[in-house]
Amino acid sequence: MRKDFPLTGYVEVRYDDEKKRVVVEPVELAQAFRNFEGAASPWEQVGPGRDDKPALPEPETPKA
After folding, report:
1. What local confidence, expressed as pLDDT, does residue 27 receive?
2. Three-state secondary-structure class, residue 23
3. For residue 22, which of 13, 31, 34, 11 has the smallest C-alpha distance?
4. Taking a C-beta distance cutoff of 8 angstroms, is the pair 22, 14 a contact?
5. Strand pairing partners for 15?
6. How far apart are CA 19 and CA 34, in angstroms?
7. What is the pLDDT, as a whole number, of residue 16?
8. What's the rounded Cα separation, in Å, for the pair 19 and 27?
9. Torsion, Cα of 41, 42, 47, 53 (10° steps)
């Protein structure tokens, strides 16, 4: 199945109970379309990263 088709159309078709007929209106999107294919995932590391673990204390050696 192809996945490269738009998810929204250019018109909205619905039945209006007050007018008792089918109404065709242009779609108003609340947010502009954003393409995420070229951007890196927020979960991928960008650089070498860093180790935030605290350093472990050196074990004490028993004195004889």
Report:
1. 83
2. strand
3. 13
4. yes
5. 22
6. 36
7. 93
8. 19
9. -140
Beta bridge partners of 14: 23
Q: Is 60 helix (H, G, I), strand (E, B) or coil?
A: coil
Asked if 28 contacts 12 with a C-beta cutoff of 8 angstroms, the reply is no
Report the phi/psi class of residue 49: left, alpha or beta, with left for phi > 0 and alpha for psi in -120 to 50: left
Return the amino acid letter for 46.
V
- Residues present in the chain in total: 64
Per-residue pLDDT 10s for the chain (64 aa) are: 666 666 677 888 899 999 999 999 988 777 766 666 655 666 655 566 666 777 777 777 777 6
